Amino acid sequence: MPRIVIVSPPFHSHAAPLSALAAALAANGAEVFFACAPAFEPLADRAGVRFVPLTVTRNANTGVAERTDQAAREAARLDEFLAATRHGPVETLLTQARHRRADLLADPQGVYEDLRALDRRLRPDWYVVDQLAYAATLALHCLRVPYASYCPGHPTYVLSGPGAFFGLPHDWPDAVRPAPSRLTELHTAVRDNDRAFTELFTAFARARTPSAPAPGRAFALTSTHAVVYAYPALPWLPERPDGPAHLFAGHMAGPDAPPAPEWTRRMRELRERAERVVLVAFGTFLSARDDVLRTVVSGLLDGTDDTAVVVAAGARADALADLAGDRAVVVPTVPQRELLPHVDAMVHHGGGNSFTECLRAGVPALVLPMSSDQFCVARDAERAGVGVVRDPNALRAPDVPDALAAAMAGPVRRRTSRMARELRRYGPSWAAERLVTAMETGVGAAAETTVGRAARARLPLRPSAVLPEGGSP
């Protein structure tokens, strides 16, 4: 029985899927410890694994970012980030690039010491670490212990080569494609970050473990054994780096569960008043964009008479309370995964969890990307033909019904249903079984890469049918 420690940053959108992987590894016979900030201990309890307190970054988000107790400096940076999203993708990504040092490498020595103490106490056989927990990955590299990487969002978080940079989308959806001059500015910023972080990683590793191999490019530091992607193996994704087993799990959601009785009642009442129900949710950070939420909800309520809406409004639920009524439920949070099988469409921000959960449930989407890897995710939804993309800052309420109609058109619904059927064979259990094999045998990297490519070929997509004219698969 292998002993495994899963290291998660203190963000609900990362910790929740990692806890699903933890549960699947435990069901596969492993002894699993879930290491995260203390507020996330209930996730370990629900997964049936043991909990270890470990904080790998100062920033945090326990479910609604604005309501999470965090230091004044981190709260101010969150406000700056949200303000940047109102000015478009490049300004947002530039702001995120400026915040990288505090976000990703705030206390590398503290994380190193905590993980070293944990390793001496628990003596695990190997670790699973979130790809974006860079301080933890650096510490594990310096400790020279075996680990697998977990990629929580778009697969390009694991850099594919020297021309790829963390924070620079490899592709853009048509609706938010920046001007070339702005992309040049962004490229300069992320390249400078890459250089600065690589120097920091190299100096840190040399001081702690001079005999260890150099970590190389900081943002390219990942497991040499296995990488688990909470994402489908889409045919056009950049080729993955050689070496580790690449395990495309499709999604990282636990077993299906019905909504709680209160939500069952609410959904039944909405169905009695409308022909279709739409879920609107922008994740734990971007629910603060209540201006976009208001545009979407008012557009659907005023522009149609056959549509009901469920809105996850985060800390802005009170500000949007006037929208609630017979055809609209406005609450801080919703059980998204449980509700998806019971809605007709979703409006989301292009988060990796929302994208893959929609695919798993066969739900088409209107995607409004605002930050991070959401532009890559939105582009994949566009290319796969399982949703449509609009600019959240340019969207007007009268435009929303037509945008939703495009997202729910027959071809989109059929492609989404086909992908849902294909992805049912994947998930946490699929990933756990193959991850244990890859880590314990030390073989299978080439085989799993081949499996990944074969899976891409099997996906029920016709890229040439969904690309814009002049595109290539």
Name some characteristics of this structure.
single chain; 473 residues; alpha/beta; Rossmann fold; 2 domains; seven-stranded parallel beta sheet; six-stranded parallel beta sheet; globular; disordered C terminus; signal; Glycosyltransferase_28; transferase
Helix count?
18
Helix content: 40-55%
The strand order across the widest sheet is 3-2-1-4-5-6-7
Instruction: Please tally the β strands and state the result.
Output: 13
Beta content comes to: 5-15%
In whole angstroms, the N-to-C terminal distance is 43 Å
Name the CATH homologous superfamily of the largest domain.
Glycogen Phosphorylase B
Structural class: alpha/beta
Whole-number count of domains: 2
Q: Tell me the CATH topology of the largest domain.
A: Rossmann fold
In the CATH classification, which architecture of the largest domain applies? Answer: 3-Layer(aba) Sandwich
Q: What global shape is seen? A: globular
The main pleated sheet reads as: 7 strands, parallel
Q: Report the uncertain regions.
A: 60-70, 443-473
Top-tier CATH class of the largest domain: Alpha Beta
Keywords: Signal, Transferase
Protein name: Glycosyltransferase
Domain Erythromycin biosynthesis protein CIII-like C-terminal: 306-422
InterPro entries: EryCIII-like_C (IPR010610), Glycosyltransferase_28 (IPR050426), UDP_glucos_trans (IPR002213)
